[in-house]
Write a structure and sequence with these properties.
single chain; 106 residues; 3-stranded antiparallel β-sheet; 25% helix
Amino acid sequence: METDIQFDSKYSQVTTEHETIEQWVEDRGGEPATVEATADDGAGILRLQFPDTADDHDELVPVEWDEWFEKFESEDLAFVYQVKTESGNTSRFYKLVDRKTARQHS
């Protein structure tokens, strides 16, 4: 497994480390989720769900971290995230990207 990679941005970072991702999400009160309509046998499209935000476009269902990371690995994804916003507040910004794309921007 790869270690954290610095992203070519002042505020964003990229990682594939499960512990880093899980800690970032849990520090913000979130949980792993999947888009219900895409979950046939296991996790579908991966998302993160936070308690005080609503995703109007997708019906999200919680999944276990093991299931979420299994899909994360099988899709060869990387996690782009911010720790703080430009103004210094805790950020919830994240994006799941292809690892090859993430390496090109590191």
